[in-house]
């Protein structure tokens, strides 16, 4: 008698990246000092592109980034996040 491992099959509906319905489709740039406050208190943050939302997820390396936020961020002058 022999055993074999079956290949992993993705059974998620096509077009979804996650089974979590509130998963963001892309991530936005926001002020660092507002992220923790939003995550804990549920307050909304304003992204560089102007979108307003509560922080619910943390971006992982390779996550899709809002192209508008990225363009604005790359145009900012180097420096700290003082305000």
UniProtKB/TrEMBL annotation:
Query: Where is the stretch described as Disordered?
Result: 1-24
**What's one Pfam family here?**
DUF3039
Say which domain of life the source belongs to. Answer: Bacteria
Extract the InterPro entries matched here.
DUF3039
Name listed for the protein in its UniProt record: DUF3039 domain-containing protein
- The protein's organism comes out as Amycolatopsis antarctica
Species classification: Bacteria, Bacillati, Actinomycetota, Actinomycetes, Pseudonocardiales
